[in-house]
Amino acid sequence: MLTSKEKSDTRRLPMMPIRDVVIFPHMMTPFVVGRESSVRALEEALASDKKIFLATQHDASIDEPKSNEIYQVGTIVNIVQSLKLPDGNIKVLVEGIERGRLLQATDSDGYMQASVRVARYPVEMNAQIEAGMQRVTTLFEQYVKLCQALNYETMISAVRMEDPAKLTDIIAANLQLSIEEKQELLEIFDPSERLNRIADVLDVEIEKLNVDRTIQSRVKRQMEKAQKEYYLNEKIKAIQKELGRGEKSEFDELKKKVEAAGMPKEVKDKALQELKKLEAMPPMSAESTVSRNYLDWLLAVPWKKRSKEIRNISRAEKVLNEDHYGLEKIKERILEFLAVRQLVKNPKGSILCFVGPPGVGKTSLGMSIAKATGRKFVRMSLGGVRDEAEIRGHRRTYIGALPGQIIQMMKKAGTKNPVFMLDEVDKMSMDFRGDPSAALLEVLDPEQNFMFVDHYLDVEYDLSQVFFVATANVMHTIPPALQDRMEVLRLHGYTEQEKVEIAKQFLVKKQMLQAGLSEKNVKFSDDAITTLIRAYTREAGVRNLEREIGNVCRKVARKVVKEGANYTIAVTGENVTDFLGVIKFRDTLAHEKSEVGLVTGLAWTEVGGSILSTEATVVDGKGKLTLTGKLGDVMQESAQAAMSYVRSRAGRLGLARDFYRNIDIHVHVPEGATPKDGPSAGVAMVTAIVSVMTGIPVHRDVAMTGEITLRGRVLPIGGLKEKLLAAHRAGIFEAILPEDNRKDLPEIPENLRNAMKLNFVDTMDEVLKIALEGPLPELREETPNVLEPGVLNVPPAPEQRPHQ
To answer: Which residues have a catalytic role annotated?
Structure first.
């Protein structure tokens, strides 16, 4: 047994309780002081000899511990540095000097003052102590080698000393022990006794580390590749096995979700197979992440959840009428669809395509369908999409792969029977990555989409119960095969009266609400709305009309803020210019005088119909036809056909047969910066040329459209409703149309038919009689300058000389 002589004395020092740390003598420790009592004790120590007594409290959660809640043995330390932080706390660095036992703690001016007994045990070096020091040093070297948390070189150099007291304190401070175990070592005052206790602790800790090393070796033998993530996972498994706790995971939960998802048998089998593979993977590996994401997507897609469909036709009709004015044909088709749903148990999904100019309500109509049928609504914009993977997704072999937008939107809908809007289907393009329109062929084919395969999911998904609604401005950019899969419903431009009703019922209320106005603040008269339509907008839809109404409402809102909530104003046709300034468009073209060689044609554009003036003039020349106005190939060919027709009919038109030899004819279509094309300007070009050659003015208040042949026949054209709406907007109330377009009259609104005089013609002769202000010269009975069918005008052969 080692013997020592104890020496002791008593000191009075400021005391500070500390949390979650035990400070040993000869140990440098930084910490932050925040409690008010601790700050005062620290300031008292700094004001005297910088000595303070630190003792660890039993419970770290207590802010103001009493003396019986603090360990009785602590350490007297010297304050090496102190720094006051911006938040009022003080960061200090202390160095342990010697142990002390708390005799009494009293409260002194808001901090604890302690009476501390210091016990010193001088040790006489002998063979037994030297052997103990050697043993402890050797054990500590083994401990440092096994413990990865300590630096070997630093620790070994730190314990090379001859003082057993200092050696034991430095080793105790660096052991990975609990607070209670370290406090037990601190309370051993005798260095020789502490040396023995440290040796016992090191034996236990080394044994623990050896068990951990054994576990590591066992795990390494089980691993084929020494991946860090795999190693950590297996280490956890081995530790749990050693403790006998077993392994808990979320795989059972995933399996339950797969069972409850309602997947088809093939999909369910694949999901369970993927789950089995996932169990065998380390959770931190890249393959595990890919597999888990795949399972999450399989579970997120709706396999059996459906929206409860509302099949009440009366309610659906009411919803559609509340949301949209007009569009009777579209509403009728939707109600037909609902009627079929009531009679057929499992009908195939419908695929509609709304085609029309911007602003006529295509997108909002899809939302109304969802509202009327009680289905979820999702929208996918196809404008600018040029990658086939946007539709079908990427295969899982690619980093960051995801399903295509079809599957992503189905996940967003959360049901397998939503209304799915494919917006701007005419604006897709293609490049080296594939053709997205070709990928849509399967999606929009009722005979195929019940087994749609996304590249990422790689399983069949049923889209047959989805109500697909596509929208487009034009049809010619949509591939024919894709057009064939959709039922095309055309939404034409609105008449002026329809726009007035739409503004009164929907747009004015919406813009007033957005501007924070009430009905008492502003009232729009019918004249005001009509003026907005005629003078500030030129469109087939109502988007710009809504914008102009919003401009008026914002200006009224400014007045309300300035004048008070009781401010009231009526917007009329006379004061609209006070809100919106100078009118943007001329009121009408009908009031301009008739001129020679100036014809009003009608054109169709992607934003609706428009007026297309055609001018012709004659200059001296050599029979050349000049065409300007940025005309396309088809329109240039129409002009050539018009010129050939006039030359062939020269005699009947009162012109010399060779009238063209000494003149050049220049045909120009104004707005030269705008590209123009199409065959429907043929009759306008013929009329312009005949007018300028005969000097007879053309009725300016008569619009015309139609394709012509070399024989003078007038062929049908498209976009009749849009063209007539454009003429009506421009103040023209008489039109010349091809006879074959008479069948399209039912599509023309009744108020438009009643407001306009429509002349249906078969030949150019009929056109000229209506369009020209004066009659043509009397028709001459000479043979027209054309070749009769089957007759060749061959010059006589030269006289043949006899053979020699």
So the answer is: 680, 723
